[in-house]
């Protein structure tokens, strides 16, 4: 997270206010600050839990991406094994056919 919190629970606990003649009731201020501290602690726990979940999900995502690449590679290898001429162009096929014809006719002429 780029933003940093200014207060933490301990800073709130340690904060002391000056009391004026017509100031706020210190007990009410303490009660409010106690609630704020509890909220901060809850938020910190939530953030830690969420960050851990994010980390776990990123690891799972990376693992699944690696498996996907592996499976795609295997599928490509199987496709190539099933059809040896799948990547061949017409020119390649004609060249092979021509070599085969040449071999067949050369063996017939030798007999």
Topology:
Blueprint: H1 9-14, H2 26-82, H3 90-110
Describe this structure in words.
The protein has about 110 residues and is mostly helical. The chain has one domain (about 10-85). The protein contains three helices and no strands. It has helices spanning about 10-15, 25-80, 90-110. It is rod-shaped and about 125 Å long. The protein starts with 8 loop residues before the first helix and ends with a helix. The mean pLDDT is about 80.
Low-confidence stretches: none
Summarize the helix and strand pattern as letters. Answer: HHH
**Beta strands, count:** 0
Number of domains: 1
State the major sheet. none
Q: What is the helix fraction of residues, given as a range?
A: over 70%
Structural class: mainly alpha
Task: Report how far apart the termini are.
Answer: 84 Å
Sheet-strand content, in percent, reads under 5%
């Amino acid at each position: 997270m780029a933003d940093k919190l200014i207060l933490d629970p301990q800073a709130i606990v340690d904060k002391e206010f000056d009391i004026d003649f017509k100031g706020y009731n210190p007990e009410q201020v303490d009660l409010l600050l106690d609630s704020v501290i509890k909220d901060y602690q809850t938020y910190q726990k939530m953030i830690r839990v969420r960050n851990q979940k994010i980390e776990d999900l990123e690891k799972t995502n990376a693992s699944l991406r690696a498996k996907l690449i592996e499976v795609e590679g295997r599928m490509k290898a199987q496709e190539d094994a099933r059809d040896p001429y799948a990547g061949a162009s017409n020119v390649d096929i004609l060249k092979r056919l021509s070599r085969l014809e040449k071999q067949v006719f050369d063996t017939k002429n030798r007999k």
